[in-house]
Structure formats: C-alpha cells, structure tokens
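Backbone-to-sequence.
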C-alpha cells in the first residue's frame, strides 16, 4: 500500500522532533530512514505506525487519511530492535498470534492459521524450529521469527526499527541479504530505520537521509551516494574530504594555484570542495594539484587509504589507491587531483 506523509510536525513538550516532513512511499517499496542519533527516524516510523500522533500534518494510507486511526486499524507489521517475542509461546504460537487474536469473522479457521504460520516459517527459513521457545533461538533466528510474526497479519505496511541493530556484524550482513530477498518475494511496502549507511545503501530502493528532525535528501542509493545535495549528506554517506577553495573566473583555486578543475557558471568567492577518497588520481608534480605528505597508510579490503597532511594546519585529507599505486609513492611528496567533486557555497 502507498503511504503519504504530508507536512508532519511532531513536538514533544514543545521540543520539535520533526519539522515539516513530507514523504511519498510507493506501494511495494523498501525505504530506509537513515540519519544520526536523534534525527527523528524512530519518531517518523512511530507516526506512520500510529504509536504517536502528529502535532500537525497528515498521513495517508492509499487515498484514506489514516492520521486518526489506531495501530490496529492501520494493520501494521512492526519489528523492533529488541525482539519482542512472547517468551512463553513457541515459535509457531508467536507467528500465529496476530491471526489468533482477531475477532469474529476476521479470524481465519484454526487449520488455516497453522498453515499460514508454517508457510511463513518456511519463508524465513526456520522450518523445523516451530516447537522451540524464543530462549532456545539465536538472536538472528529470533529476529526472523519477529519478521514472520509481523508478516502473518498481511500488513498494509511493514515497519522495522533497527531490526538487526543488536546482532553481530556477520549475522547483520546475512540478514540484510535475506531481508531483501524476502521483500522481493512478498512485495510488502516496507520502511526500516537504520543508522548504518551500508545497510541502507545495500537494502533500500530509496534512502531518506534525515538530520535534526528534517529530511535532507530522498533518493536511490546511487543518487544519495553519487549526487549528495548538501554537505551534510556528503559527509554522512560514505567517506568524504572537504577543502576550502577560491573560485575565480570559473576556475577552482587552492593555496593560490589553479587546480585545473572547471567551475564555469560559479560566481567568484570562497567555496567548499567536497570529494571522495576514491575519486582522485595521482599527479606527477604539485603543479595544478593538491600536494601533501603521507602521515599514515592503512589497508582496507582491496585498497590502501593514505592520510595526507596538506599543510597550514588544515584538516588531513584521505585518498584511496590500489595498493600497487600506493606502494610506489614518495611519502614526502604526494600530489593528486579530484576526478569527481562537488562545490558547496556558504
Ligand atoms: N517521547 C519523547 N519525549 C520527548 N522527546 C522525545 C521523545 N521521543 C523522541 N524524542 C526526541 O525527539 C528527537 C528524535 O528522536 P528519535 O528517537 O526519533 O531519533 P532517532 O533518529 O530515531 O534516534 P536514534 O537513532 O538514537 O534512535 C530526539 O531529540 C529525542 O530526544
């Protein structure tokens, strides 16, 4: 189901946790809410669920205004970071719960509930464990049960609040891949909160980057990574460097010399040049380049990250090179040029 968040403001005791947030979630989409702690991700998720009500603004489920509807009426599937499974129920009973407690005509016959729960356990790859209790499962298995339980009621929207946050790195990675596969098979409209950029970029159809109670950018993983629209997004997603430069006659100048990068159309004055560590190429000499001394070097997977001191107490710059290129460098004179970059003013 399509969900439309329209000009939402949420205050807690006059403290604005969200200001004027609008977001259109397409039916069947997997959306990540990504941002630092306190940026308002969980508040937005709880508003969609109906666990909080907005101070201003509306939330539509399809064409219907859901703002005044309860959590039950919205028919939401929710998975929290800390598996909220019922400890005294078996895995099968946990997954069946949402259907068993339905009243009257909406409750399927017993045999159907059992069949559906077993199908879901098969989907989350836990067949055979239906008689176990939550304490007899690993953290990752418990989260898979929580997801099966959330999906059992055929929710309009599936909301996941840092579902893998409490798990170790390898399990997180496996579950990420698995969640994407499940989503592709079931097609539930899904919103998940994370502060892990890798998780958001790898999993989501679109990423909503939040900061200080507002949306900074909405885009596909490629758009937010390759074309960040603000210094905040550039700095928050992936690694980045920032250099203060001068623009003069459409030319970018650093330390009094031209970098040979074309900024035609930009007015003269100071600007911040942002670029990623891997978007650089080495230069033979310092001419038309940024030059510095290597102060440290570390291997990260297939590349080497080199930290450069570019003088005058400026923040260090990090560049990323294939090890074969990095190993040929003269530590005392490293010169490079950004190959992809973006200017921000003000
Ligand atoms: N019930 C509440 N009462 C008062 N303030 C609240 C309440 N819930 C959230 N806030 C405040 O609203 C802001 C946004 O909180 P929220 O939990 O939505 O952020 P978040 O991005 O999910 O953070 P985290 O990643 O740490 O969970 C924070 O400043 C928080 O202190």
């Amino acid at each position: 189901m399509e969900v439309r968040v329209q000009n939402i403001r949420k205050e807690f005791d006059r403290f604005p946790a969200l200001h004027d947030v609008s977001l259109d979630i397409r039916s069947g989409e997997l959306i990540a809410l990504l941002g630092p702690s306190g940026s308002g991700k969980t508040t937005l998720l709880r508003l969609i669920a109906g666990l909080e009500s907005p101070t201003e603004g509306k939330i539509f489920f399809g064409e219907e205004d859901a703002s005044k509807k309860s959590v039950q009426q919205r028919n939401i599937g929710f998975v929290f970071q800390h598996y909220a499974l019922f400890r005294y129920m078996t895995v099968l009973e946990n997954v069946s719960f949402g259907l068993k407690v339905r009243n009257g005509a909406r409750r399927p016959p017993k045999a159907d509930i059992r069949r559906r729960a077993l199908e879901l356990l098969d989907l989350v790859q836990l067949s055979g464990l239906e008689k176990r209790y939550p304490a007899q499962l690993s953290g990752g298995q418990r989260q898979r049960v929580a997801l099966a339980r959330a999906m059992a009621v055929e929710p309009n929207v599936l909301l996941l609040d840092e579902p893998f946050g409490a798990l170790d790195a390898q399990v997180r990675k496996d579950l990420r891949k698995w969640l994407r596969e499940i989503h592709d098979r079931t097609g539930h409209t899904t919103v998940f909160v994370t502060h892990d950029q890798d998780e958001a970029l790898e999993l989501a159809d679109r990423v909503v980057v939040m900061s200080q109670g507002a949306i900074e950018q909405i885009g596909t993983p490629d758009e937010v990574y390759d074309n960040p629209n603000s210094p905040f997004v550039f700095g928050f997603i992936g690694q980045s460097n920032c250099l203060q430069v001068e623009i003069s006659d459409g030319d970018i100048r650093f330390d009094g010399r031209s970098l040979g990068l074309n900024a035609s159309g930009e007015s003269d004055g100071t600007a911040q040049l942002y670029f990623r560590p891997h978007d650089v190429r080495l230069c033979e000499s310092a001419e038309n380049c940024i030059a510095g001394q290597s102060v440290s070097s570390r291997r990260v997977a297939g590349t080497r990250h080199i930290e450069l001191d570019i003088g005058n107490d400026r923040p260090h710059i990090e560049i990323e090179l294939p090890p074969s290129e990095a190993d040929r460098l003269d530590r005392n004179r490293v010169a490079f040029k950004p190959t992809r970059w973006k200017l921000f003013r003000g």
